[in-house]
Design brief:
mainly alpha, two-stranded antiparallel sheet
Length: 269
């Protein structure tokens, strides 16, 4: 494997992210408004509950979790579904399919560059600000190493799910509605919109084994060192579950892609 060609794609992705700086700042501003709404919403929820702790989480715990979840979403999010849909409709996807590199590898390493820049522009500043405002409530130790490992696998899982949905574009040529459904499912069942601790027990017991939880909930709980996500207390199980879903989704995505390529039609071709 020639790592130089992958690093070159990553560098191009980073440069492309920097080229559209205004879009990044608009996204950050939109997220700021969203976080303000989240603050007042959950403040009202806790005020009406009549207790300082709901489902084992204080208001401060919930806000830290949701703020970091939003930052993690901006860091991990890729737009391969939208991009592929446009490329199929315009026919430009043929140019990428003719490149001397597998399309999935080309897409993954290209988006990695954007993810790296998003990490420095969104997640890292948010993490630092939150830790300062909460007077160092987030422990900085070995959990950071396991967090990095967990985030890398979350990135692979998120890309694999998006790639599977994007592959459906080869059949439908338009996936706006399907992608909206996918976004809602991922945000809800991953814990990015509502912490899984607030889910009913039956639903939470099912969700904890699904791949969606591995994208946001697992990395965040590893970072925050929640019970069940520390060394000797469930951390190994969570990381192994992420690894299993990485392997399953990569395998399923590759198979689906190979089958779907035989049915591709571009501009009637």
């Amino acid at each position: 494997m020639n790592i130089k060609k992958y690093l070159a794609l990553t560098r191009v992705g980073m440069m492309e992210k920097l080229h559209y700086r205004l879009g990044t700042f608009v996204t950050l501003f939109g997220n700021l408004i969203y976080l303000v709404l989240i603050y007042f919403l959950w403040k009202a929820i806790y005020a009406s509950s009549g207790t300082d702790r709901v489902n084992g989480m204080t208001l401060n715990d919930t806000l830290i979790y949701l703020v970091l979840a939003t930052a993690l979403f901006n860091f991990l999010e890729v737009f391969i579904v939208w991009d592929m849909s446009r490329e199929i409709q315009s026919g430009s996807i043929v140019l990428k399919l003719l490149k001397p590199m597998k399309f999935r590898s080309f897409a993954f390493w290209s988006y990695i560059g954007e993810n790296i820049m998003s990490f420095f522009l969104t997640f890292l500043p948010t993490f630092i600000i939150i830790n300062i405002l909460t007077h160092g409530s987030i422990a900085l130790g070995i959990n950071l190493l396991f967090f990095v490992i967990s985030v890398v696998m979350a990135l692979v899982i998120n890309f694999s799910i998006d790639m599977i949905v994007a592959t459906i574009c080869l059949y439908t040529e338009s996936t706006w509605g399907l992608n909206m459904v996918k976004e809602c499912i991922v945000l809800l069942l991953s814990g990015a919109a509502i912490p899984l601790a607030f889910f009913p027990d039956t639903l939470r017991n099912v969700v904890q084994y699904l791949p969606f939880r591995c994208i946001y909930d697992t990395p965040l709980n590893v970072l925050l060192q929640k019970p069940g996500y520390t060394i000797g207390d469930g951390l190994l199980f969570s990381l192994v579950l992420q690894l299993i879903w990485c392997i399953v989704l990569i395998g399923a995505g590759n198979l689906f892609w190979k089958i779907s390529l035989k049915r591709i039609t571009v501009n009637g071709g």
